[in-house]
């Protein structure tokens, strides 16, 4: 039942994704590292786990010489 609901929502929002692919992305984790500075400010570094090879997004296949709209 949950997979059917997720599949329908994905079809409306992101037609190329499947419930199984969303499960694979659940393995990716994120953490924010908060480092205080000596002047009272705080430096925040967002860190992600290294994705599995199957989760890595392929590079953009844009044409070299395509025009920018402006």
Chart the SSEs and their pairings.
Layout: H1 2-13, H2 19-25, E1 30-36, E2 42-48
Antiparallel strand pairs: 1-2
How is this structure best summarized?
Helices cover 27% and strands 20% of the residues. It has two helices and two strands.
Q: Outline, from the CA principal axes?
A: elongated
- What is the radius of gyration? 19 Å
* Percent of residues in beta strands: 15-25%
| Tally of DSSP β-strands | 2
Broad structural category = alpha+beta
| Number of continuous helical runs | 2
Q: Which blocks of ≥5 consecutive residues have pLDDT under 50? A: none
Tally of distinct domains: 1
What do the pLDDT scores average to? Answer: 74
Largest sheet: 2 strands, antiparallel
Describe the structure.
- By secondary structure, this protein is of the alpha+beta class.
- The protein has one domain (2-52).
- It is 27% helix and 20% strand.
- It contains 2 helices and 2 strands; from the N terminus they run ααββ.
- It has helices spanning 2-13, 19-25; strands at residues 30-36, 42-48.
- Strands 1-2 form a two-stranded antiparallel sheet.
- The N and C termini lie far apart (46 Å).
Can you give keywords for this protein?
alpha+beta, single chain, two-stranded antiparallel sheet, 27% helix, 70 residues, 2 helices
């Amino acid at each position: 039942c949950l997979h059917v609901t997720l599949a329908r929502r994905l079809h409306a929002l992101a037609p190329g994704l499947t419930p199984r692919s969303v499960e694979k992305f659940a393995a990716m984790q994120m953490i924010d590292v908060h480092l205080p500075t000596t002047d009272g400010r705080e430096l925040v570094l967002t860190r992600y786990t290294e994705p599995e090879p199957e989760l890595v997004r392929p590079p953009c296949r844009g044409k070299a010489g395509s025009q920018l709209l402006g």
